[in-house]
Amino acid sequence: MLDADFFRRWMTAAAASVDREADRLTALDSPIGDADHGSNLQRGFAAVAATLEKEAPGTPGAVLVLAGRQLISTVGGASGPLYGTLLRRTGKALGDGAEVSREQLAEALRTGVDAVRTLGGAAPGDKTMIDALVPAVDALGDSFAAARAAAGEGAAATTPLQARKGRASYLGERSIGHQDPGATSAALLVAALEEAAGE
Ligand code: ADP
Ligand code: MG
User: Fold this and answer.
1) Domain-wise residue ranges, the chain
2) Model confidence over 71-117: pLDDT tens digits?
3) Distance (Å, rounded) from C-alpha 91 to C-alpha 111?
4) Can you give the pLDDT at residue 76?
5) What's the sign of the alpha-carbon dihedral 140, 146, 149, 154?
6) DSSP letter string over 126-176?
7) How far is CA 170 from CA 162, 175, 196, in A?
8) Atom in ligand 1 nearest the alpha carbon of residue 29
9) 3 CA to centre of ligand 1 in angstroms
10) What superfamily would CATH give domain 2-197?
11) Distance, CA 150 to ligand 1 centroid (Å)?
12) What distance in angstroms lies between residue 88's CA and the mean position of ligand 2's atoms?
């Protein structure tokens, strides 16, 4: 079972991973965006880690709701409200139990991903974070490792796509041939789950 500590470890691992990969995320956001994705998420997840340490919420749901709120309030780019919504809505769907199963997390994350789809209007294949998140949620019923692999493959598969949502869509066909920064960071977020599980 997964307790509040697991969810705190998830967010801390995500913050560390985003920090390590910030330059790469920003580099991906430069040909098809405005070169701020790494710094946006670095700032956001650093704030998440700091808030979780200070407030120490006691349930899985409360950890994710607080993390989501923090991302919404600290990240200016499109990705802040989108990731914030993902975590907040996933947290709400987890309810207020002290522990949840991996299967419950998979179900709650699907609710969170659906909320991101509603907010941003992106569908699979539009070259966004959705392209990593949807396959990850589908695979999470099997294992954290399967979810990590599926998210990584989903992110890589955005390269040949033409962007239909977000800033990259303004480039039309010129968005083809570049991996989507948000799908790349979504894969980091999913990989951090496996780290938190210690697998
Ligand atoms: P901005 O585009 O405002 O500079 P970021 O650079 O932080 O914000 O994030 C860009 C990423 O956000 C994109 O690579 C994409 O994955 C994601 N994104 C942008 N718009 C949408 C949307 N409508 N739905 C889902 N994801 C989106
Ligand atoms: Mg950007």
Assistant:
1) 2-197
2) 999 998 899 999 999 999 999 999 999 999 999 999 999 999 999 99
3) 10
4) 84
5) negative
6) SSSTHHHHHHHHHHHTT-HHHHHHHHHHHHHTTTTSPP-SSGGGGGGGGGT
7) 10, 8, 37
8) 6
9) 30
10) DhaL domain (1.25.40.340)
11) 20
12) 22
